[in-house]
């Protein structure tokens, strides 16, 4: 894939079809998530088509990040089902009973999902190269030679070709987040989850990170589920925007519609506050 500085070349080269298919690659069915007595998500139903880029917006505490963590199996479902390409992610209906699928099956599905966290989550005791190659070698079983070659290519793509032997603690926040993006892409994920990836960054480096993600969106057909307060980014890259509040979908639609003429008063108030409109 081209680097963020290769936009002109990318425009003239052959690019993959980034139009989403109609078949859901992620499907939430009657999903419920509780933390003690606190119901974060209840009766949540939605789907994401293959190649579709869906952005979740809404106030803090509305359940957006919980959705990503459920897809990554970092949180356990309280009720309902999540399907990845039609396969039960953590629980399935077996003869009318809701039962947990095997850990082996869960692990296998997780290899198809990548996540970039707001706090980077890099291993401080490993070099940048080791952070990127660890999972491809030990989870996907790739040869070290192939994993290293891909890692160097990804570091070139994210603008850090000279940082392979550096440790995360020696990097700026923006550099660490670019390494985290490279690490997620090293797994060739079918699904990429982005959780407020710019919220911990200094304002001057936000655009650099978003430029890389725009390149990924424009040059691949990876399915994206995005949580962000960067509304311009959401409008640019999304096929669909979903407004959440109180663990429910308030409304959803094409970004042009949601950002210019939302139907629901709650969406109008949220966007007015975030965008600073009167």
From TrEMBL:
What protein family is recorded?
Belongs to the ABC transporter superfamily.
Q: How does the UniProt record describe the way this protein sits in the membrane? A: Peripheral membrane protein
UniProt entry tagged with the keyword Translocase? no
Annotated organism of origin: Garicola koreensis
Segments of skewed composition (Low complexity): 1-21
> This protein's superkingdom?
Bacteria
Where does the record place it?
Cell membrane
Q: GO CC annotation: what is one?
A: plasma membrane
Chain ranges of the ABC transporter domain: 26-271
Q: Which GO terms describe its molecular function?
A: ABC-type amino acid transporter activity; ATP binding; ATP hydrolysis activity
Region of interest (Disordered), residue spans: 1-22
| PANTHER family tied to this protein | AMINO ACID IMPORT ATP-BINDING PROTEIN, GLUTAMATE_ASPARTATE IMPORT ATP-BINDING PROTEIN GLTL
Nucleotidyltransferase in keyword set: no
InterPro entries named among the record's database cross-references: AAA+_ATPase (IPR003593), ABC_ATPase_HisP-typ (IPR030679), ABC_transporter-like_ATP-bd (IPR003439), ABC_transporter-like_CS (IPR017871), MetN_ABC_transporter-like (IPR050086), P-loop_NTPase (IPR027417)
Keywords recorded for this protein, A-Z: Amino-acid transport, ATP-binding, Cell membrane, Membrane, Nucleotide-binding, Transport
Q: What is this protein called?
A: Polar amino acid transport system ATP-binding protein
């Amino acid at each position: 894939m081209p680097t963020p500085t290769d936009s002109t070349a990318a425009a003239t080269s052959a690019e993959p079809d980034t139009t989403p298919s109609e078949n859901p690659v992620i499907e939430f069915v009657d999903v419920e998530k509780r933390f003690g007595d606190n119901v974060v998500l209840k009766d949540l139903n939605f789907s994401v088509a293959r190649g579709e880029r869906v952005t979740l917006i809404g106030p803090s505490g509305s359940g957006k990040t919980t959705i990503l963590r459920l897809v990554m199996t970092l949180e356990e479902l309280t009720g309902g089902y999540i399907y990845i390409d039609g396969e039960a992610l953590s629980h399935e209906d077996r003869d009318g009973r809701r039962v947990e699928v095997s850990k082996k099956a869960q692990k296998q599905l997780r290899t198809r999902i990548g996540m970039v966290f707001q706090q980077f989550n890099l291993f401080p005791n490993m070099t940048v190269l080791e952070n990127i190659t660890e999972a491809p070698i030990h989870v996907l079983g790739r040869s070290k030679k192939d994993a290293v070659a891909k890692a160097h290519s990804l570091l070139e793509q994210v603008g850090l070709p000279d940082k392979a032997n550096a440790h995360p603690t020696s990097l700026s926040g923006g550099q660490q987040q670019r390494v985290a993006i490279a690490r997620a892409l090293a797994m060739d994920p079918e699904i990429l989850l982005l959780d407020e990836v710019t919220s911990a960054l200094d304002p001057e480096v936000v655009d650099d990170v978003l430029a890389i993600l725009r390149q990924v969106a424009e040059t691949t057909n990876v399915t994206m589920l995005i949580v962000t307060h960067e509304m311009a980014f959401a409008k640019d890259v999304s096929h669909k925007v979903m407004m959440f509040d109180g663990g429910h979908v308030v409304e959803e639609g094409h970004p042009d519609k949601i950002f210019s003429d939302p139907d629901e008063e709650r969406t109008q108030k949220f966007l007015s506050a975030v965008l600073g409109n009167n």
